[in-house]
Amino acid sequence: MKYIDEFQDPDLARRLLDEIRSTVTRPWALMEVCGGQTHTIIRHGIDQLLPDEVELIHGPGCPVCVTPLEVIDKALAIASRPGVIFCSFGDMLRVPGTDRDLFQVRSEGGDVRVVYSPLDALRVAQQNPDREVVFFGIGFETTAPPNAMTVYQARKLGIPNFSLLVSHVRVPPAIDAIMRSPSCRVQAFLAAGHVCSVMGTGEYPDLAERYEVPIVVTGFEPLDILEGVRRTVLQLERGEHTVDNAYPRAVRPEGNPAARAMLADVFEVTDRSWRGIGVIPDSGWRLSPRYREYDAEHRFSVTGIDTREPAACRSGEVLQGLLKPHECEAFGTSCTPRTPLGATMVSSEGACAAYYLYRRLDLTPAAASDSLEGSAVV
Amino acid sequence: MSETTEVRAGALDVLGWTCPAPLRNQPRVVMGHGGGGAMSAELVEHLFLPAFGGPDLAGTVDAAALELGGARLAFSTDSFVVRPLFFPGGSIGDLAVNGTVNDLAMSGARPAYLSCGFILEEGVELSVVQRVAEALGAAARTAGVEVVTGDTKVVEAGHGDGIFINTSGIGLIPHGVDLRPQRVVPGDVVIVSGPVGVHGVAIMSVREGLEFGVEIESDCAPLAGLVEAMLAVTEDLHVLRDPTRGGLAAALNEIASASGTGVVVQERAVPVPAAVANACAVLGLDPMYVANEGKLVAFVPREHADAVLAAMRAHPLGREAAVIGEAVEAHPGMVVARTGLGGTRVVDMPLGEQLPRIC
Fold first, then answer.
1. Where are the alpha helices (DSSP H) in chain A?
2. Is the minimum CB–CB distance between A94 and chain B shorter than 8 Å?
3. Chain B residue with minimal CA distance to A223?
4. Chain B within 8 Å of A102 (Cβ-Cβ)?
5. Contact B358 A63 (CB under 8 A)
6. In this complex, is the C-beta atom of B264 within 8 Å of any C-beta atom belonging to chain A?
7. CB contact at 8 A, A140 and A196
């Protein structure tokens, strides 16, 4: 695997930036849907390098950020129960519920474990037959198939002490909802490459046509992002609005049929609440009736949870591109990754957190000191 | 979500969007308090230091520099709770020696004597204890220090994690050597002694059973010899740090904060082995935040930088030393990276533990 250097090559990046500069004639607002792309853009300073006419709006595609508070509170309640081993991806441990997070549950004696694959959680269930093992199944279409696989395998192998707390979300309904918003400024989308590697590109032509927006399937390395932007700007300048795949090394039009079949078997589409946003119709998955017995919400019937959101912050405006993270008065003062007031400050893929981590300083290139290349010591 | 109303039409009511509650101070210890980042620093500053009532700087540096009977002593302590006990490239025994030896070396001291306290969990096989003890002894001989005092305690099964070790150490600081972050001035050159992130990824690969295609061995090593070679060039090094927990990012932030200068790092100049870069890419981690156990970062006056770099590269533990940046007047207390593409970003102090990202 030699991709990393190749897809961060400064010379190629400069060439792509030059092409974008020579193509663009007027302002355009592009939304990168995926939080992983937001992270790459800010971490590598790509937004600083693009011409002023190209504005990147950071979309709601951080699965950690948009998991509803109610589900987080249910996770905390289940993880606190004696006899439960609660397994989760690492970055969910820090997401605040109404009054605590999974780290705190662990410090209070709860058995909360970080796993790197949902199938690891299934292994934990096999190794602990006298305990109830719950996996926190969150994320977009990317993480949904392996999470579905755990339930499929649990049934196949007869593992009764395993269940899934599901809060999966789908990208196309979110794009649809964003485009319907009266305050929407988005003129094109960089679609999330990893989502499309599972689902293919078939869900997007209808959206591109209906809202007359280019949708370019884009990868996650710096050059992927720049190529996605280049192709999007090209379409905008030509007045086109098609679905284009700028990430062919990972995305086929049909996606991954085996993964899609797994999703169709284990899950069913449902309305889903997005934290900081609200309910978006048909934007989520839940376990289908065939697998209801593996549904942790059903199994633990968590009730009596007093879920309380505080006074609103402005992450909704951030997610719509109406406000840049640093333009919010709470940014970096009362709202930091340590004390997040908003969904977008929770995970490093959230736009506010990315700005806080990487962009707290409005640097001019000169202030950042001239490159050391001219220094005698390099 | 209690306040949201379903919008059947599918349009988003932007003005109705709400946000999660802030999470303020934890009432209990969480893992992040031991992560070597901001939470660790806050624990020391707000809980331990006021309770101890010691000098302001106690506990905020890796080794204390003390005047005693006309000699300048460096004194340091460190505890080791690594899991697994044995990993590619070393063991808890190696870490227990090198961790403390390196803390002493970063103050310019020549490490001399160690104490060693073992906390053993009931049920651990004595053959395992023996292997750890032998590794510790071998590491001490390699580092040129003697273990001169010790202690053993046993806790009930389930109350430990096999073996915990604490080592304390003392060493002599040569006359004329004064390594402190307060000595850093704009213009200082920042040098790292070799590839970063190796130890953390090595531990993760065995702890989590992750395969990265090639076995990554910990860089665990005693650095006193390398420091001696650097001081032979000039006593006027300004500050040294071994970037362990929290990695290079934490070390640079501590120095920037204590010195009141800014630090600029050229991201592409930071040596990161391909295996570490790939592992971090898979896990969503940043190599700048991953632990090292055999590396140092040095702030060197510009006029000595070439000679110090050459001396480091002539030493087996500094062969891949590289200049990665400089101290600047701008943005005091803050570390900024120039990205490979020419952008800039803040390199923040890590908060607690680095968490693998979901996707």
1. 3-6, 10-23, 35-43, 46-49, 63-66, 69-79, 102-107, 118-127, 144-157, 171-180, 193-199, 205-211, 222-238, 257-266, 296-300, 315-319, 351-358
2. yes
3. B341
4. no
5. yes
6. yes
7. no
Q: What is the DSSP letter of A331?
A: B
Q: Report pTM.
A: 0.81
Which amino acid is residue A339, in one-letter code? Answer: T
Give the CA count within 13 Å in the CB-facing half-sphere of A258: 2
Distance CA A358, CA A353 (A): 8
Q: Which residues of chain B make contact with A335, given a CB cutoff of 8 A?
A: 22
Interface list for B 151-210 with A (CB within 8 A): 189, 208, 210
Measuring CA to CA, which residue among A331, A333, A353, A355 is closest to residue A344?
Answer: A353
The minimum CA-CA distance between B24 and chain A, rounded to whole Å, is 6
Question: Both tokens of residue A73?
Answer: 């509170």
Q: CB of A274 within 8 A of CB of A344?
A: no
Q: Could you tell me if A192 lies within 8 Å of chain B, comparing CB atoms?
A: no
- Residues of chain B in contact with residue A207, where contact means CB-CB under 8 angstroms, are none
A 237-276 → B contacts, CB under 8 A: 271, 273, 275-276
How many Å separate Cα B286 from the centre of its chain? Answer: 14
Round to whole Å and give the CA distance between A280 and A272: 6
Task: Assess contact for B242 and B310: CB atoms under 8 A.
Answer: no
| Pick from B1, B189, B309: CB nearest A278 | B1
How would you write the pLDDT of chain B (359 residues) with one tens digit per residue? 333 333 333 344 333 333 332 233 567 888 778 877 777 887 888 788 888 886 655 445 789 999 999 899 999 999 999 988 999 999 999 999 999 999 999 999 999 999 999 999 999 999 999 999 999 999 999 999 999 999 999 999 998 889 999 999 999 999 999 999 999 999 999 999 999 999 999 888 887 767 666 778 999 999 999 999 999 999 999 999 999 988 999 999 999 999 999 999 999 999 999 889 888 887 878 899 999 999 999 999 999 999 999 999 999 999 999 999 999 999 999 999 998 888 888 898 877 666 666 55
